[in-house]
Design goal:
This protein is 52% helix and 8% strand. By secondary structure, it is mainly α. It folds into two domains: 31-144, P-loop containing nucleotide triphosphate hydrolases (Rossmann fold); 181-312, Bovine Mitochondrial F1-ATPase, ATP Synthase Beta Chain, Chain D, domain3 (Orthogonal Bundle), CATH 1.10.1140.10. Helix 11 (282-293) packs antiparallel against helix 12.
């Protein structure tokens, strides 16, 4: 928490140019505070969020972590000698969590003037040993609409954010497809599904490559590995310290996905025409992707054109 207070004080809101602390409320509850305070802190944060929501604001509530809140419930229940449930948690754990989650959402406030606000609730859960079968995780998964599953192995590979695309999911995909297609491009759903399949195929091939070596794979499989590497580094990965990469618009993400699949199609056609995998100028392609990823908004279109020319020239090389 001391680090949060120190770092947030130096951050600037890109929309207003003022310190981000001007629009941030921190509810601090350290481990040496009473257990009842740990229980109340989450409700206090949600109540404050609802106050600003009713004023017409869009509020993000970040709870770190609900696992500690559930442990506080367990301690209180034990002291009250209530009937324990699974792993000692109270039997009403799932009910309490669902009642908390359902307070998030978009509302039209009563009164005048007419105003619409929303509360987005993002909670962190720390399952012991990464066991998703433990009660707190299962109680959350029953009611939440999306999951970002962080994988320590991805963090060790310097993949940030370290979100595991196999375990993570969203139940809002169909509801948001129209918006993403309008903001990005009409083939957004197809690009999304193809990229997910590419990453899943990459995981299978990496297991095989770990046994026989990358050089033993077919050129087509090596192209899949390279395409997935580009997807991880330039499409999914972000550098929070870069001014133009810390935030990526939907349109920019869409263009990167289109470039990725232009690379896959061009590379596949080159391999079918007899060009060896080693003959593909992959270093230049990665450099072109990096230029698009970190390009300033006014130079983005130019960098995209350069990347398209680089990719189209792969077959000739």
């Amino acid at each position: 928490m001391a680090e949060v207070l120190h770092d947030f004080g130096r951050l600037t809101d890109p929309e207003t140019g003022r310190p981000i602390m001007d629009r941030t409320i921190l509810i601090v509850n350290t481990s040496n505070m009473p257990v009842a305070a740990r229980d109340a802190s989450v409700y206090l944060g949600m109540t404050i969020a609802e106050y600003y929501r009713d004023m017409g604001y869009h509020v993000a509530v970040l709870a770190d972590s609900l696992s500690r809140w559930a442990e506080a419930l367990r301690e209180i229940a034990a002291r009250l000698q209530e009937m324990p449930g699974e792993e000692g948690y109270p039997t009403y754990l799932a009910n309490r969590m669902s009642r908390l989650y359902e307070r998030a959402g978009r509302v039209e406030s009563q009164g005048t003037p007419a105003r619409t606000g929303a509360v987005t609730f993002i909670s962190a859960i720390s399952p012991p040993g990464g066991d998703f079968a433990e009660p707190v995780t299962q109680a959350s998964l029953r009611v939440v609409g999306a999951l970002w599953a962080l994988d320590a192995s991805l963090a060790h590979q310097r993949q940030f954010p370290a979100v595991d695309w196999d375990t993570s999911y969203s139940l809002y995909t169909d509801a948001t497809t129209e918006w993403f297609s309008r903001e990005g491009g009409p083939d957004w759903p197809e690009l999304r599904m193809e990229t997910i399949r590419l990453l899943q195929r990459d995981r299978e091939l990496r297991e095989i490559a770990g046994l026989v070596g990358v050089d033993a794979l077919e050129d087509e499989d090596r192209l899949v590995l390279e395409g997935a590497r580009i997807a991880r580094e330039f499409l999914i990965g972000q550098n929070a310290f870069h001014p133009h990469d810390a935030f990526s618009t939907v349109a920019k993400t869409y263009q990167l996905a289109k470039l990725l699949w232009a690379f896959m199609r061009t590379g596949g056609a080159a391999l079918k025409d007899g060009v060896s995998f080693e003959a593909l100028d992959l270093a230049a392609v990665r450099l072109a992707f990096g230029s698009v990823k970190t390009a300033a908004p006014d130079a983005l279109e130019q960098q995209i054109l350069k990347a398209e020319q680089m990719i189209s020239g792969m077959k000739a090389s």
